[in-house]
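Quick bug: Aspartate carbamoyltransferase output formatted oddly.
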Amino acid sequence: MRNLLSMEYLTNEEVMEILLRAQEFEKGDDTLLTRSYNVSNLFFEPSTRTKTSFEMAERKIGCTVIPFDAGFSSALKGETMYDTVKTLEMIGMDAVVIRAKEDEYYNELLEGINVAVINAGDGAGQHPSQSLLDLYTIYKEFGYFEGLKVTIAGDISHSRVAKSNATALKRLGANVRFLCPPEWAGDFEAHHSWDELIEDSDVIMLLRIQHERHVVNKSFSKESYHEEYGLTFEREAKMKKGSIIMHPAPVNRDVEISSELVECERSRIFNQVRNGVFVRMAILETILKGR
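Here's what came back:
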């Protein structure tokens, strides 16, 4: 692994190596990299969890984090992504972590760029580090993927989390089902009712409604969405023993999920955030040591 761009480019063996390394970090392995690497986080879209998690992971494995403020960068003057990253390479960066609003922005960085590129989210495309921390959360819970029934519910067509997780989970042997309003299915075949899904799901993964990627819909109602597609108390009560609730966050409480369920016994939502640090430590170490 010289870069992390999409879950489509990772083999099952590479996925498991990252998950097992994350497990070692969580158990207390405090091994630092053999030298200090310079890393910068280029976030052109808002982020709380991913950006802060990467910064924490970078420091924990001994990287030097070089600040980058997208709101004051030359991108505002029209500089291309390639020129921005090439500039940082010439300054001495070893890796860049990038979130951008354009799908597959990284394609223009595949030739001529010699720093490691880690995709922290490209538009409605992929979010590989989120997928890996989701996989780690599931693996910690069950110890396997083969045959697990995973229901991903919400704004499927706009969700890079849904796309990344669908790719990885199916390849690892899980049975992935989708639930959403008909107009949000995109290229996926989706259910439009919980009836066939709620009682046998091992994992229910809820997704935020990404209003910023929608054409304005004045008829949208949070209340009606919650009633029809959200995880309510009544639906949670029907979930099988041992099943868990996940959400990449930020959570729209009482829309995708009843507020009181966010920290219920089944919920792993805040555990996912904690797991993200260990997984991103493993990602960074794997990529930087391999260059």
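Actually, after a second look the formatting is fine. The mean pLDDT is 94. Closing.
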